[in-house]
Each structure stands twice: as C-alpha cells, then as structure tokens.
Description:
The chain is mainly beta. The chain has a single domain (about 30-775), classed as Maltoporin, Chain A, CATH 2.40.170. It is about 0% helix and about 55% strand. The strands form 7 sheets. It has a 22-stranded antiparallel β-barrel. Strands 4-10-11-8-9 form a 5-stranded mixed sheet. A 4-stranded antiparallel sheet has the order 19-42-40-41, with no helix packed on it. The longest helix has 8 residues, at about 395-400.
Amino acid sequence: xxxxxxxxxxxxxxxxxxxxxxxxxxxxxxxxxxxxxxxxxxxxxxxxxxxxxxxxxxxxxxxxxxxxxxxxxxxxxxxxxxxxxxxxxxxxxxxxxxxxxxxxxxxxxxxxxxxxxxxxxxxxxxxxxxxxxxxxxxxxxxxxxxxxxxxxxxxxxxxxxxxxxxxxxxxxxxxxxxxxxxxxxxxxxxxxxxxxxxxxxxxxxxxxxxxxxxxxxxxxxxxxxxxxxxxxxxxxxxxxxxxxxxxxxxxxxxxxxxxxxxxxxxxxxxxxxxxxxxxxxxxxxxxxxxxxxxxxxxxxxxxxxxxxxxxxxxxxxxxxxxxxxxxxxxxxxxxxxxxxxxxxxxxxxxxxxxxxxxxxxxxxxxxxxxxxxxxxxxxxxxxxxxxxxxxxxxxxxxxxxxxxxxxxxxxxxxxxxxxxxxxxxxxxxxxxxxxxxxxxxxxxxxxxxxxxxxxxxxxxxxxxxxxxxxxxxxxxxxxxxxxxxxxxxxxxxxxxxxxxxxxxxxxxxxxxxxxxxxxxxxxxxxxxxxxxxxxxxxxxxxxxxxxxxxxxxxxxxxxxxxxxxxxxxxxxxxxxxxxxxxxxxxxxxxxxxxxxxxxxxxxxxxxxxxxxxxxxxxxxxxxxxxxxxxxxxxxxxxxxxxxxxxxxxxxxxxxxxxxxxxxxxxxxxxxxxxxxxxxxxxxxxxxxxxxxxxxxxxxxxxxxxxxxxxxxxxxxxxxxxxxxxxxxxxxxxxxxxxxxxxxxxxxxxxxxxxxxxxxxxxxxxxxxxxxxxxxxxx
Length: 778
C-alpha cells in the first residue's frame, strides 16, 4: 500500500530494516538453566529468569513478556527487532544509516544517537552477558530458547543503562546427545540463508562440544541511483552476514557446571542510503520513486566485525544455595559510511569508524527457601569506546572558502570503569503477603578525550578509504577535552569524572489465590553520566539520568483457558542528557554542548491477554498505552533560562501499540500443521526530540505463517509472509533544514541546513517479504 509523503508528517513506510548481526549463533546453556514453556492443553506454564532466578511468569511481580523458541519458529521471526510486536510500549528498530545498530525504547526511555560515548537506555543481555554498545545489537535469532522483555527500570539486578528496561536473549541447552540441525531459507529479494548447528559428547554425561555456522544473504530492497565513485555495489538495504560459534560445556559433578563460548560475526552488508524527502537544491537528486532508493558520494562498503568469549561457572553448594560466575570479553570494529545528504555530491558526508572493547565479571550468590529468595552479587565492568568521524562539507568549502574542501574532524574515546554490589530479597510477611527489597550501589569512573577541529580539505579516516586517497600525517586536530596537569595550558591528560549511585527497589505482592497475584512496586534506575563525544570546547561531563518508576499490576489465570496480565505505571525521567547546538562565528563552527537540560514523565498501561479457546486454538492480545511528554527543558538566554519544553517530543514512543495474534494447530496423519496470524499496530510517533520534522503516521503490519512438523520430529517446513499489505513506515532519519515558522508545511519555504542543502532524510522498515524455510534434524 503506497502513501503520500509530506515533509512534516511522513506517512507509512515499508517494513522494517532487517540488516542484522548474528552475534549469537547461540548454541546452549546448561540444562540447569533451561526454562521451557510446557503445556498439556490450555494455558502454557512459562518459566523466566527476569529476577535472575527461576520463576514462572505469573509469580514475577514486574511487567515481562516472554517469547519462546516454539513461538519464534512458528512466526518465522528472523531478528530480535521483531519481538517488539509482542511487547507493549516497546520499540526495537534498526538504526538510521547502518545495518546492525539497534534503536531501543521502552516506555518512552531509550537512546537514539549511537555515537561512541552515549549510553543506551535499554540493556541488552545474551545469557546474562551485557551488550554495551548498540552497534551489532540487532541480533539474528539463532538457537534461541526464549527472549524476555523486562519493562521499567531494572537498576537493582541489572544495573546502569536499564532505565527503560532490559531485553534478555537466552540460548538453548545442550542435550548431551549427538545431534545436527540444518535449515535452509529462500525468499523475497533473493534471500538465501543456511544455518548449521550441532553438538557432540566428548565424554558421556561430562563434556560436550557444540558448534554452529550461519550464512545470511539477501539482495537490496532498493538501489543507489547515483554514485560519485566507480565500481560500487549499488544494492541498498541488502544483507551479507556470516557467523560462527563454538560452545564447550563441562559437568565434572552433578553440582558443578562450566560453559565456555566463543563467537565471531562479520556483517558486510552495504551502508544504508536514506530516502530524500525533499529534492536537492545543489545537484540533480530529486525525490526517488522508491523509499529504498538513494544517492551517494561515499563508498557503499560497510562492515561490522564482532568477536567475544564468555565463561559461566555454577556451583550448587546445597539445595538452597548456589554460587555463579559470569565473565566475558568482547570487541567490535566497524568502518561505516553515512551520506547524510544522500546525493552524489559531497554536501554532507560522514565516513566513520567505531572501535569498542569491554570486559565484565559478575559473581552471584543465590539463596532460595520456602519463605525467602535472595539474589546478590558483585559486578565489574571495564569498557573502552572509541571512534572517529569526518563531517565533510566539501561543496560548501569550495563555494564559500575557495578551498579544496571542508571537513570537521572529530575523534576520541569515552572509557568507563565501574563496580557494583547488589542484593534483592523476596520474603513472606504473611501467608498471602510478601515483600521485595532490593538495592544496588554503583561506583563508576569515566575518562574521555576528544579531538575536534576544522580542516580546509576533504579528509577521510584512513588511507584508501576512497580510491587513491592517502591520509596526510598529523591530520588529527588539537585535543579539546582533557586536563592541564603541569600548568602550561596544554591539555595533556584525559578528562575524568566519577559518580556513585544507590538504586533501590521496594515491592509488595499479595496472592489473592493460587491463580491471582496483585503487586505494587517502586524502582529506580540510572543511565551513566558521559562526556560529549562531539565537544568543541573543554566542558564538564553530563551527570547520570535518573528514572523513578511506580507500578501496580495484576497477574491472573481466571481458568485453564484465560490469562490476563495488566500493569499500570508512572515514571519520572530526570536530568535528561541532551546536546544543545550553540551559535558560532560561522556555520562551520558546529559548536555543541552536552548537558542535563530536561525532564519528562510518562503514565501508561500494559495488558497481555491469552485465551485458549481449545487445545488447538489460542488468541493473544498485547496492548500498550502511554502518555509521555517533556515537562521542562531549560535554555540559557541573555534574559535568563526559559522553558522550551513545547519544542520537544518523546521520540520513538507511540501512544498506542497493539498486537492481535491467532494460533491454530491442525493434526494430520503426516504431522502437525501450525497456522499463525498477527496484526501489529503502532500509533503515530516522532523520530526526534527537539523541533521534530519527521513524524510517522499510525500503521499496521499483517503477518501470516504456516509451518508443518513431521511426526518423527526430523522435518519442518515453514512458509512466512511479513508485512503483507506492504506498508511503508519510518524507523530513522536526519533533519538538517529549518521550516519557515509562518508556513511550516510549505516545502519551498524551508531554510537549507548544514551543507547548504535540503537535507531531510528518512530510513524505512522492510517491505512485504515472503520466505520458505526447510529444516532437518539428524
């Protein structure tokens, strides 16, 4: 279904960008930690680890969505972003300009700018290992046991950067038997995927090894219509991912278990070109016919390379007490090309690279008896996040300054080291009444340096970035963030700042009956303070953001056929970090200042309803309603601070999200056939906080699947259709224009922005796709 685009209210855009990193060809976790969804007709019993201990979904007093392996297979889910359809008030989208960077918002809280140094507002975890950066966080769903979405601040058990919530990716377990699985997929736009996984016992009942490999490929949804460079791959929104993983599990005794993982992923999908919503003023780049077509003056080559290892050790000291250690080391490297103006002219080009490394250690002590459950631990994180980008304004430089070009070059690192101790206990106050008390204390230090300056030439991060380019020596410009240690006015040490934070949780749970619980809670979370990675002057760090949240809810199984889980929530989001653009002497100054300038709040409802009409027919409804707005944003003026909150919107947060799903199982003489259909609706939303020009109208996605499972358990064949009505919808963009305040909807009266052109760009979700998968288990 095609719709008309208008600059201030961009209409529906095709289905969501897919490019994703198979960071986790995740093969297995210990049998002690596998939590299946079981059913004998009627409602499923769903077990989760939302509170780092095994509980059923109905006894966890927080708002949680859990989507298990069977459901994921039946709907043909390919990437983690699809989980947003089943979780109220949740946004998971592939970021603008890249193929594997995640934009995550829950209850109006997240982080849309993926630049190094900025911290996410929603935590991503793979088998309890924290994924610190959004680059590479759009995970392919491979060998997954389930995915849990925890809504609301999780500051006590999960720590910093979970002020919106947390998403837990839990992998499948080894069974101990020699097995192999092969799955091949073909589909729209030349999709051709192959996934191979297997496991083998080295020592029976003691030592197992598992391995996996995936090759995931798809042609582009669109084309780069013009390119300034020869011999470029002109596919836009394509996919080219390979991934490998090895898992080793060792159980020397019944009470001791070890698991070691190694994984590596290469994503060589092209950079994503954006859709010009306005024709260029400076070159021949009209609005394309397809929202997936673009123009570029940069290489289309892009790469995300991720590699990591992790070790988990668990010791069941007794029937009630266990000790667990989780350690990890991860690194990623990503050279990327983002053409902000999306023309074949160097109006506003941003070649960049990101380099991230982090190490984590966590030691848990867990106790559980009939009347008390205690989860406690100590956590250490050491991360280095570095990068460099060039804001090339070559056309402006040649026209205004009579120079070979013009580049604002920015580079540096934002490094973080933190240690935290935490404990959370749930205990009985009476037969039907229990209380939860939790606390976490975090001590964090950050240090940063930023190199920022203007060069009157077109420069790129390294030699060979474009054909024939050789980067001059000593190109980096003076450091603008740091410390003068010897009094000579030269900043010769990185800037440093430290913070401590105590984040509590208090809750009450009342068990009305065996099948109904009501709960109320208060929780707090914080997002790390940070230095401005784009600083143009020496400036202090922004303090942490704080979210205080209150929830009341009910979880009820009214019969063995009907389940309703409903939560009401209210949150205050204080000390919001935001970039203010400060005027300079000219348009090339690009002065920016990062500070704590805003406060927003939100109130809403989340409801998840399951009705098992029969053993074979199930209906699911997930509803989210939220009213989120900025209360205050202060801007300094010559007359003092003024509140400009009316110019701000809570981005990526529709007022209503709804998903209605139907599942029907038909038993035949040749196996079971499972039919799935769901319709997902998102209300209108803004893409930017300040002076937003990119609004997405409400839209709906219709998905249908049919899967056959053979009686012997060896074969399965699935046919899946996504976004069958071919809706178009925005998931990201750039806005570097200023509307005329007297005629904000008149395209001809826009004032050109940075680079001197009409840069108003949109990125879109996937169009209608159909794919066929065939799997065989040996």
